[in-house]
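Hi F.,

I've been meaning to write this up properly since the lab meeting, where we talked about keeping a consistent format for the predictions we share between groups. The idea is simple: the sequence comes first, exactly as it goes in, then the structure tokens exactly as they come out, then a line or two of notes. No screenshots and no reformatting. I'm using this chain as the first example so we have something concrete to point to.
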Amino acid sequence: MMRKILPIILALLGLGGGAGAGFFLRPAPDPGDQPPAAEHEAEPAGEEGAGHVENGPEYVKMNNQFVVPVVEKGRVAAMVVLSLSVEVEAGNTEAVYQREPKLRDAFLQVLFDHANVGGFSGSFTDGTNLLTLRTGLKEAGGLILGPAIRDVLITDIARQDS
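Output, unedited:
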């Protein structure tokens, strides 16, 4: 009889031990997930409470990556792939998407020019190099979007040598 009960007892002990370990070893709740009730009640209702979010910038990720060939001695020596996001004034996200073809064209021209002057050769991720590139991208974006554009962010960059 004991041989029949022992596996059941061991299974229950294992199940209870696993549940207890899971309960005691769970991660602590993140205090940023839910504001305390007093803070939540103190916020003004309606648009006034959301106003601080509307005044901040919006970030618009360009839909596709940019692929730039690096030409050395008449042949493609490498390919640079970049992902860009555009920082705009609040409420201008739709304007970026409406003008995306022109914006992509302007950005590609800056990227090709940067590649042609050796910007993607050597230590192409150097801070000065990237600052020059970002400035050129922002200026080109300003021609398309006007003062709505705040900055252009390089979110990913990779170089693949041939």
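Notes:
The helical segments are 2-24, 37-42, 47-54, 93-98, 100-116, 127-145.
The longest helix spans residues 2-24.

If this format works for you, I'll send the rest the same way.

G.
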